[in-house]
Write a structure and sequence with these properties.
single chain, 457 residues, mainly alpha, Na+/H+ antiporter like fold, two-stranded antiparallel ribbon, 19 helices, 2 strands
Length: 457
């Protein structure tokens, strides 16, 4: 126990263990996996009818006998709740472009080109299996990488994995997410209401101007982002998740207080707090002490960029609420009696082989080609085996692939759409499980001694 800090039984047995669980990098992937498993079990149990029916209930606004935004729960999850996920993706992408791995063109080249290869090759493989058929529009399904699961596998391996590999996979997945957003915006958008679309774009421009004028209040961006950008995009026909990424790029990424000024101010306020009058006979603080603590709170907030403050604050909500609920709503595949026929359909094979073979060829093959041609350098501390293992981990396409599956198939009947979606989800599950296990064992086989030698070189 730290000196001077009192832990209550609630802290010791509830709050601290929960915080420790949430703070671990692997737990988001674990919760996501459990939610997907629960969905599959429910969808293939006696509760199957209830499970599918509950997502079709409609929620909307009713005024003067008219209904507005009257969508199913499934629609609200995919267009509303997942907008929060894409907002955080946008924040991460902006941070990476400004001060992360993608800010240095030399360092960014390899993961960017690898991500592009990892999108194009899977799409081509799927297209080869489904060319000229009514399912050909599903080529975007195997393009995506699920960063939560992929990084979860790396963190399970612990110290055996060099930091450079985690950075490479993160940068690759961020570029991959951006590619998925662009694909959704361009190729998976319905008929467009241009009045609503230009209304949303107008508010995006206004938010950029607000940032330029120095407005930093996150509530201001939240209100205008939801009602000025997200809602018009939702009504325009352009997928509303695109609005989330655009709003994320308007969030200020600079701090009011520099690091040196922050250190000086904190030292000053701590000294003043130390010298202030104290309530020696009571556990409460004096008014003077509260005054200095408030100064510390304000200057600490000013030292953090709104972008990073939002990203840090929203990650637990996305990891433990948004993504598990999305998995519950979308991963519930009811397997038919003829599972072999479903598993060998063109859609299933196109998705599964597109993910496994396409990602390995696209990510590993393109990366090694660039390194051999001296267009890019092998990241320090990594070997070709590391990149080979990451090629398989990139084939874990769970969340984003499921998301695109809901947009990819359009007809001609609801029953046929549901069948194609089932086949695509089956391919996603097969590929994610097989590729995750192969990637894990490849990277586990790399000796830690090799990693240490390379890191010290």
């Amino acid at each position: 126990m730290e000196e001077g800090i009192k832990f209550t039984p609630a802290d010791k047995y509830i709050i601290n263990p929960v915080n420790s669980f949430i703070s671990k990098s692997t737990t988001g992937g674990i919760v996501l996996f459990i939610a997907a498993l629960v969905a599959i079990i429910l969808a293939n149990s006696s509760l199957s009818h209830w499970y599918h029916e509950i997502w079709e209930h409609k929620i909307g606004l009713f005024f003067d006998g008219e209904s507005y935004l009257n969508f199913t729960i499934h629609h609200w999850v995919n267009d509303g709740l997942m907008a929060v996920f894409f907002f955080v993706v946008g924040l991460e992408l902006k941070r990476e472009l400004i001060g992360g791995e993608l800010s240095n063109p030399k360092n960014a080249m390899l993961p960017i080109i690898a991500a592009l290869g990892g999108m194009v090759v899977p799409a081509l493989i799927y297209a080869a299996f489904n060319f000229g058929t009514e399912t050909s529009h599903g080529w975007g399904i195997p393009m995506a990488t699920d960063i939560a699961f992929a990084l979860g596998v790396l963190y399970i391996l612990g110290d055996r994995i060099p930091l450079a590999l985690k950075v490479f996979l993160t940068a690759l997945a961020i570029v991959d997410d951006l590619g998925a957003v662009l694909v959704i915006a361009i190729f998976y958008t319905a008929e467009i209401d241009f009045i609503m679309l230009f209304t949303g774009i107008g508010f995006v421009v206004f938010l950029f101007l607000s940032k330029a004028f120095g407005i930093r209040n996150t509530l201001f961006y939240a209100i205008l982002g939801i009602f000025g950008v997200w809602l018009p995009f939702l009504l325009s026909g352009v997928h509303a998740t695109i609005a989330s990424v655009l709003v994320a790029f308007t969030i200020p990424a600079d701090s009011r207080v520099s690091e040196n000024a922050f250190i000086q101010k904190i030292k000053l306020y701590l000294n003043q707090f130390k010298e202030a009058d104290q309530n020696e006979k009571a556990p409460t603080l004096t008014t003077e002490q509260l005054h200095y603590l408030d100064h510390i709170r304000v200057v600490t907030k000013d030292a953090m960029t709104p972008l990073q403050r939002l990203e840090h604050g929203m990650h637990p909500f996305v990891s433990f609420i948004v993504m598990p609920v999305f998995a519950l709503a979308n991963a519930g595949v009811t397997f038919s009696n003829d599972i072999f026929a479903e598993a060998t359909s063109n859609v299933t094979l196109g998705v599964a082989i597109g993910l496994i073979a396409g990602k390995v060829l696209g990510v590993y093959g393109v990366s090694m080609g660039m390194i051999k041609l001296k267009i890019a350098n092998m990241p320090e501390g990594l070997t070709s085996r590391h990149l080979f293992g990451v090629g398989f981990l990139a084939a874990i396409g769970f969340t984003m692939s499921l998301f695109v599956t809901n947009l990819a198939f359009t007809g001609p009947t609801p029953e046929l759409i549901a069948e194609h979606q089932l086949q695509a989800k089956l391919g996603i599950f097969m590929a994610s499980l097989i590729a995750g296990l192969i990637g894990y064992f490849i990277l586990k086989a790399v000796k830690p001694k090799t990693i240490i030698t390379q890191n010290n070189a």
